[in-house]
Amino acid sequence: MTQQTIAPKGEQTLALSWTSVAFFAIVHALALLAPWFFSWSALGVAIALHWLFGSIGICLGYHRLLTHRSLQVPQWLEYILATIGAMALQGGPIFWVAGHRLHHAHTEDEEKDPYSARRGFWWSHMLWLLYPQPVFFNYEIYKKSAPDLDRHSYYRWLNRNFLWLQIPLGLLLYALGGWSFVIYGMFLRAVLLWHSTWLINSASHLRGYRNFSVDDGSRNLWWAALLTYGEGWHNNHHARPRVAKAGQRWWEIDPTWWAIQGLKTLGLAKKIVTS
């Protein structure tokens, strides 16, 4: 498949991946079918899976647990949370964690941060996925940023096969509610969750307020926090990346923290980093 090249900054030349363009375009197009397949139950499925895959899978599993090790859970539960994260269709755990650790290690560096906000809103929002750089997308390279995960054979398997998890999900949704559940539970949910997550890379580095003085443009953005179950308190997070609670002030609502507290109550979450 042919590729188009651009040089968004400096002398670096990037190649447009038409495979990625086609993938994201098809999923977005299928999501646009939602009005013709509407039902209240289908909408409920989309909302429930947005929360499950977003808050529990991505925010708690991929982000606060696997990336920052802000808490500790039994290994079997860690595998379950990682699998739920993989269902979100945002990449395998090694890929996701490695990219986010590089984002923290080199925040807004135009070469070393995969989704540097200094390249502009659309680059940090989604163009970095359409112009994939080998240093961030080549497994043999990016796995070096997540060696703790790469040691697990299950995470290596999940990293290779996360896309296939959509097949049993689609079959289950179809069995429960036909094409309405498939359109809402898979495609509309995926698109809404993608853009919710991407807003943390883009909007939360451009708009909002700061509780902490940090050497980057991270901001606390209330509406992004509502869409991402607490991740939008991004300035708080960049100031204290290992702290499990993203919301620091009483009005900074953090539903993912509530889930962590629930696990603690059940005796399943320990060594929670609070400061």
Characterize the structure shown.
By secondary structure, the chain is mainly alpha-helical. The chain has one domain (37-265). Helix content is 57%, strand content 3%. The chain contains 13 helices and two strands; from the N terminus they run E-E-H-H-H-H-H-H-H-H-H-H-H-H-H. It has a two-stranded antiparallel ribbon with strand order 1-2. Strand 1 and strand 2 form a beta hairpin. The chain is globular, with a radius of gyration of 18 Å.
Assembly level: single chain
Number of strands: 2
SS summary, helix count: 13
Q: What is the H/E string?
A: EEHHHHHHHHHHHHH
Strand adjacency order, main sheet: 1-2
Helical residue percent?
A: 55-70%
Average pLDDT for all residues: 94
Which parts are unreliable, with pLDDT below 50 for 5 consecutive residues or more?
Answer: 1-11
Give the overall form: globular
> How many domains, in number, for the residues?
1
The rounded Rg comes to 18 Å
SSE class: mainly alpha
Euclidean distance between termini CA atoms: 49 Å
**Beta-strand level of the residues, as a percent range?**
under 5%
How can the largest sheet be summarized? Answer: 2 strands, antiparallel
